[in-house]
Description:
The protein is of the alpha+beta class. It is 18% helix and 37% strand. The chain has a six-stranded antiparallel beta barrel with strand order 1-2-3-6-5-4. A hairpin with a 3-residue loop joins strand 4 and strand 5. It is elongated and about 105 Å long.
Amino acid sequence: xxxxxxxxGHTVEIFVKSENESIDSNVSTHPIETGSPITDHAQRESKTxxxxxxxxxxxxxxxxxxxxxxxxxxxxxxxxxxRGAIRHNDLLISHLEKTYDEGGKKNAVSFNITLTAVxxxxxxxxxxxxxxxxxxxxxxxxxxxxxxxxGDTYWGWWVKYGTSIDxxxxxxxxxxxxxxxxxxxxxx
Length: 188
């Protein structure tokens, strides 16, 4: 006998004929470039447990209720605990099958079930706190730019735009005598 139990203590007893545990990996079927890390092309899947056996009851109504409990857990995504030869917590029903290989029974039903292990993690979320009135961000200064033509100088731009010569030199990084014609220069 084995049992499946949910977090609320609901239990279904099952008679298990076979218990299997497997771990698969997804491996790329695409060519892998020589020297590439193989770990980029293989991913381990969750551990799965496959069982087959019988669900017994005093009558067909009780058998149906137990099988319906399994279907309810599967559709609801309930985490289960399995206790049999294999013992494992945090399992989801990923496959459930009722079989009639032997023509059916009055007080039992044959079944196959696959349980998939789920890895649970604890996350800590920091709640954002209000630190007061939001400060207005100053507008971004888009600046004023010109295309340099023959005869342009820092002094000429200072006269025309009112920007200091030192600021013009800092923005544009050109020697006073080597301002490149056709270049884009910031002037304000």
